[in-house]
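Sat 14:20. Reprocessing the chain from the morning session after the first attempt stalled halfway. Input below, unchanged.
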Amino acid sequence: MDYLIVGQGLAGTLIGYRLERAGHAVTYVDAPEQTAASAVAAGIVNPITGRRFVKSWRIDDLLPEARQFYRELESYLDRPLWYDLPLVRTLFNRGDENDWLARGGDPAYAGYLIDRPQLGRIPQLTRPAHAYGGVGHSARVDICTLVEAFRSRKRSEGAYFDAAFDYDELLFDGRSRPEWGGRSYDQVIFCEGWRARYNPWFGDLPHGGTKGEVLIVRTEEPPLDRLFKHRVFLVPQPDGTYWVGATSSNRFPDDRPTAANRSYLEERLREVLTVPFAVVDHQAAVRPTVRDRRPMLGAHPDQPALIIFNGLGTKGASLAPLMSKWLLGHLENGEELPAEVSIRRFT
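Finished this time. Tokens:
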């Protein structure tokens, strides 16, 4: 079958790769000049989230699929993408510590919560905290490298178009197969991130968008060898810098960085670090979100040749591998999508 994928961020890359591996022809269209969440995301895989220290949704299924799939993509692209990194997070007071210890006593959390984590060089670089908790099975995915390396490969193969997709150019009414750019396709998969709210076929779904801003900073000290969460996330990068973030706002006039949020992040960072730092870059992007915080997968109810794969939100690095596997099974074999992620839940 011939597929057209609109949007080559994390979602478009992973479902496209799965389709190609299954023997299908895939064409990609995207506008790299439009800032995408994939280009700014830290790619954190964090199994324990929130102030109540709960396991992320379906994390027991997501983790093994993510680790195996990103390792496969490393071989395909000849790039390191998956980094197993311990995660240490601050417990601010005795209440936090008691909640952490109580949650750790649940057998379902075995291996996920660590009472006395190894801190590495955290005490040498940061202000002391009441206590620390460790998160097992945490990691970082280099999403930016993944997307850019995949794009470069598809461009060299003539399967990638640098263009902002114009919905009016998708010739569809009265045709058995959608047509775009003088070529017909069996199905079109929209992986547009937050801009899917403007899609004429899927715009009525409850699309949200959360703007996040991050800093890239450098210190004169050797970088940490683990993820650290204390008011903000500090994520060490291969080049010795840190990804620091992120702010969160669901009301925004545009997707550009703002002076106010830069100041906010710098102030939070000064509350954490005891060493000087220099800001190397300040970035912003909008994450696609959904009202019930679950991805959106499935075919248009009246136009089955049109598919959506969207709404990965803040957990995209861990969600995307399994979600793309589910979507492939649905497209190839007619497998029913879980009700939690199917767009049928909104219709």
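The chain has three domains: 2-41+143-206+292-346, 66-140, 208-290.
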